[in-house]
Write a structure and sequence with these properties.
By secondary structure, the protein is mostly helical. The protein has a domain of 56 residues. It contains two helices and no strands.
């Protein structure tokens, strides 16, 4: 059974505002086709990307943690300097 579309008495078929917007997924059929091809390639095991080695992954993780610790250090130093400013200058 095919799904029937509802027919309204006041619908004359005119388009008041086109909802076909550039950049939306339903607008460009090429994007949908590329996504399907990409899914097929992944399912078939034909990926174009190189996998990281264990050493590269370990190095990447180490540097990401180091960057996070650096940001935490900067915020901590700023907080300590603010507390020192408050106690030594502002509240005197």
């Amino acid at each position: 059974m095919a799904a029937r579309t509802k027919q309204y008495d006041d619908d004359d078929g005119r388009v008041i505002c086109s909802m076909d917007v550039d950049g939306m997924p339903w607008h460009d059929k090429r994007i949908r086709r590329e996504k399907k091809e990409q899914k097929r390639a992944i399912a078939a095991g034909q990926t174009d990307r190189e996998q990281m080695t264990k050493a590269e992954a370990r190095q990447f993780t180490f540097h990401a943690i180091l960057a996070g610790m650096l940001i935490a250090l900067v915020f901590s130093v700023a907080w300590v300097l603010f507390i020192l400013f408050c106690t030594q200058v502002w509240f005197r």
